[in-house]
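Justification of computing resources. Each target in the renewal requires a structure prediction run like the one illustrated here; the chain below, 185 residues long, is used simply to show the kind of job we budget for.
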Amino acid sequence: MKKLFEFKTKTIVATGLGAALFTLLFMYVKIPTGIPETDIQTAYGIGAFFAALFGPIAGGLIAFIGHALSDGIQYGSIWWSWVVASGISCFIIGLVYPKLHVEDGEFGKKDIVLFNIYQIIGNFVAWVIVAPLLDVVVYAEPANLVVTQGVVAAISNAISAGVIGSILLVLYSKTRSKKGSLTKE
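Resulting structure tokens:
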């Protein structure tokens, strides 16, 4: 059985690779929504994919580090409330890790539904609760603006994580041998 908070060498490598991919996608592959500073971020699809494969610690670190690096590189300062929310969203998504059998070559309809339940919950908690609350408390932002941004971010990031993450997990599972599929002659 997979341990929820296991952190092996391959998890560390995956965290570094995932954070680098997250940073690049966050900076360069996004779709504007029309709401200020709120885009459809393809990076959350990668974050959700890695979180489902390597667990909550890897998922949380990938999104936290990737978002922080992106903010620091692009803007010269980091908007910590949203960086923390990014980490929380992928941490929560990673909680599905022990329930999935992607490494065993299995990722069917039930797994897709389960993965998407977790990622929708993760995005809702992060963007509708955590980010707006921290924006108001830490940065004294107007509540109506940050709640609107949070709702748009939750919906767009859930779409990104749901579509991109699900597709990547299905494709990745097809590269793995199904458990018990090999027989001795």
